[in-house]
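User: Thanks for the earlier help. One more: Kinesin-like protein. Can you show the sequence and predicted structure together?

Assistant: Of course, both are below.
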Amino acid sequence: VESKLRTNAEHKEQQERTERIACSAQMVAMSKEHAQLEVDLRAEITSFGGESDQKIGQLEKKLYDRDEALKDANLRITGLKTELSSLKEVLRTVEGTNTTTTEEMSSREEEVAKLRGKIQILDSKITGAKDELESIITEKDGNIAEIVQKLHESQSEMRKMHNKIQELRGNVRVFARVRPFLPGDCVSDNADPSVLPVGDNELTILEEKGSVNFSFDRVFPPGISQEAVFEEVSEFVQSALDGYNVCLFSYGQTGSGKTHTMQGSGTGNMRGIIPRAIEQVGIYKSNLEDLGWIYDLKVSFLEIYNEKIRDLLREEGSPEGKHDVKVGTDGRRFVSDLRMLPLDPANSKEIDYVMELATKHRSVACTNMNSVSSRSHSVFTLHLTATNAKHKKSLRGTLNLCDLAGSERITRSGVTGNRAKEAMAINQSLSSLTNVFVAIGNKNSHIPFRNSKLTYLLQPSLSGDGKTLMFVNLSPTEESIQESHCSLRLAKQVNKCELGQAKKNIEEVSSTSTQYGSDSSSSRKKVNDNAPISSSKRTLTKTGSTIPRLKTIKKQNKGKFKATRRSSSS
């Protein structure tokens, strides 16, 4: 009992340390990013101001003329005031000597009144000129703000078009995330990262021979929050509720932030994709149940260690069982004797229990590159089944969230003995995954899914029936440039893979069947229509004719965007 308490205490301490380090690193990265954003914003405002140079020049000329008129008026006013003073002095002299006649006094008073009227007119003109100038400046500022807004809207529309084309093609989406510097990197506070995000879709890796650019569906800078990252993948989580096979996996070298992206740490802002996905499923599930859908949710969590499957949700103290990837009579893939737990997404204690139990059982070890390096691939799977008696439909969806073991060079990681064997098994498994994507990208007739347990398990999501997204995680350190370049080359290859348009696992249920799990083949049949579920968008069936149209729209928007940029800089 004492040993178990000590182990739990050490685990809790490690978890808190991890969260503190992650928070600290994110704060430093966000500070740097804020400073860079401020510089970029000033530069952008300067560039946008260029389009108004001609108009400003005209306004400056007009203002110069007004200033000259104002100077003349001021000189005239000064002269008039001097003259008025002289007249007053003369008046006082006349009054003193009592030699000026009444008619002369009246004439002088009329002249003074006229001068005062002229002064009032000049004051009114000066006030009008100031108001006009302020109005012109306000209008100019409004035009600049409008141009900035149009640029942002154009960029957003281009991105939506790109994502729609990728969805219709069935391309594997690829998101790249650069982690911030960590205390263990031993770099100065003003160190420059070797991998630089450039906008939302591009990044540059700096090498001795020069820089190399890569483009992906989304690129996240070091200061990005866990919440913002999850917002970008939330639609994939929703797809599982719609009846799709969905797979998100996190790839990268050891210490690049894969586990932080997938699992995160703690129960606050540092939570990763897995706990946030469960939370989102709970929200969507509640909304869909109001529409007549009844959901059944179960979770499994396994790791593939040295090509052996381990159940991460096995009861504490229970021996490890033997597990294999098998195909059932219905053609669906499953893992034998794997513990599946029912899950209520609204119950935070159940979620915490699943995550903590899996973390305790996962295989980790200390290497030169990471003090708690994951030595296995982990696959969290959310199994969803649902029925709708009103529409006589049933669906089955799966959400696979994979945290892959880190790729590494054995010479750099400093592992020996059993750890070296682990590294070799990891690299071999990742090589099998790479070969699968290469074969898919080349449209080979044979895809080597059976070459590893991981690819065989994920075959339903990688073979064209599902949706797949890859996170490539990158370290900013100079020592990691070679590994980062390898990861980016694979990610680029993966991004070219076209799996085909994903298919929903929806079936029509007859009135005699009340449960989705009924084995009667006569009680249900496959249907291709979309059920009235979470997504209000309808899948476009005429893919061949839609893609060219979307490409044309995207090209037009891109042209408008470039034209706007040119006009703003002229």
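User: Great, one quick takeaway?

Assistant: Residues 365-373, 512-548 have pLDDT under 50 and may be disordered.
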